[in-house]
Amino acid sequence: MSFDEKKGMYFPSEDIINQSNVKEYEKLYKYSIENREQFWAEQAEHLDWFKKWDKVVDESDKPFYKWFQGGKINIVQNAVDRHLTTANRNKLAIIWEGENGDIRTYSYHALNREISKFANILKSMGVKKGDIVTIYMPQIPEQVFAMLACAKIGAVHSVVYGGFSHEALSERIKDAESRVVITADGGFRRGKIADLKAIVNQAVELSPTVEVVITVKRTGHEVYMENDRDYWYHDLENLPIASPICETEETDANDMLFLLYTSGSTGKPKGMMHNHGGYSVYTATTNRMVFDIKPEDRYWCAADPGWITGHSYLVYSPLINGATIFMYEGAPNHPYPNRWWRMIEKYGINILYTSPTAIRGLMRYGDSWVKRHDLSSLRLLGSVGEPINPEAWKWYYKVVGNEKCPIMDTWWQTETGGFMICPLPVIPLKPGSASKPFFGNEIAVVDDNHNDVKPNEEGTLVIKNIWPGLSAGIYKDRQKFIDTYWKKFEKEGWYHPGDSAKIDEDGYIWVIGRSDDVIKVSGYRLGTAEIESALVSHPMVVEAAAIPLPHKLKGNAIHVFAILKEGATPSRELENELKDHVAKVMGPIAKPEEIIFSDSLPKTRSGKIMRRVLKARAQGLDEGDLSTMEE
Ligand code: WTA
Prior knowledge:
Largest sheet: 8 strands, mixed
Number of strands: 32
Radius of gyration: 24 Å
Strand content: 15-25%
Strand order of the largest sheet: 13-12-9-7-8-14-15-25
Helix content: 25-40%
Bound molecules: 5'-O-[(S)-ethoxy(hydroxy)phosphoryl]adenosine
Structural class: alpha/beta
Oligomer: single chain
């Protein structure tokens, strides 16, 4: 790579260009826009289909688009089965390291056996095509087996992040009406045991649909198991039902693959649905082109499979592309801040994909922890989840990547399935910009009249086209999908992601952040409404408003304005109690940074809290247009 000071851009070396899966952006971009369906049909040809599609996209039920309509495909056929008949069969599919130093590896052959066993166990528990299985696990290989086992038999997985509270978990189990839950006794995090089974036990008490809980033994600590409901995975695995041979279901391209709950602007988390066909094509294509993945690569996506990044770019797309994936269970700084760098060196990782929060977190320990390791295997770096500040970008580039690795800053969402705005290894990079629309995408930044803003002016990010990774909708709530993403630009038919952004004179897109009631903390997505209702569930609080304020490490931190009940007095103790209460109700990631006791909240005449006014006030900025504020 080389740096052009005048332009502020980093240019790829000959080497990078020569080895890249895609050598050129502009021409292919133009082709993909002018021949969108053709482009996606060509990409779909990279995958195995039981039966090819009749129609590339069926638009008869907008905005519920059906990609590769009439096609028959299973993502597991592509991620695993098809590798079994090639030389890939004997290469490693998964390398896993536990926080306590345990190591496990699986070839594609072994992975297939594990998935098949798991799939047969699920079948024996009565799981059928279309049933939704909830998975609540630490980052262990069985988490991946469980996801792929569901997909293999045409069941749907709903993975809930292992950091969520029992209340959040049960809310998701109930919405999905899961009969079967898969978990583990616990996981290791910072040397301690996270007691997942205890949380599942509490959640299941509140979830009447659950009949079966399958528990994988990881930590070996004592856990409560209920007769006729709880089964140890290692017991089931030794029964004749757990045959390592299982046929992969021939699912329709538009059969549901998974549900993933994500926060939005209303209180209840939304179950975003993704289907086998379009999702496979979109994630595999973006992973191949942007991360330039090759079958001989060792690839590490450091996200938890409990989030969309883990689904799309830890589990599914790298396996479809036949790479070796690396997974790590625990904290990045355990036992020392060189844990990640040691593992990259040890396993010879070629591609690292992580979040700005993780980068900033490791950066604060200084360069020497990184420098003592040989990271020369790294070829490419990735970032996701929140805007990356140029300082963190440069550190990642210089210290981790040794000025050799392009950084793919990828902007996308749970709803989009895969990368929407991102560079390619062959285009010049600007630190802090996610760069350009991915192939097939027309992305703009518009003002309140829906016209393009001038270069470098802030506006609303919109996506003007449809793409195969687009979510199939919100589970059991058609209208909410329409209202949330398509109402604002109904006339134009554009997708509204809820972010604000700028575009510079070179057409590089700079995403600023959420412009709706979603807060990104350390890249985790939380809804203000969920945080507020958690606070109001405390007996001392009558009303609350949550806002994000910039935070050096986390990107944003949650600050809450709370109105207390008559007679309650603000105190340091109460502030701490309320913070802990939110962490208990939602999970530790939602713990507020600060609680500000207040007598009133600024509201519109129709009674909506004006969070932007609170935010401006807290930062000492201009409060903007106050004409809609009530007296
Ligand atoms: C934010 C995560 C800036 C954005 C894959 C988006 C980003 C939300 C970036 C989706 C990035 C994600 N630069 N902001 N590279 N990537 N975001 O659903 O606000 O957890 O709307 O998906 O994350 O969060 P989600």
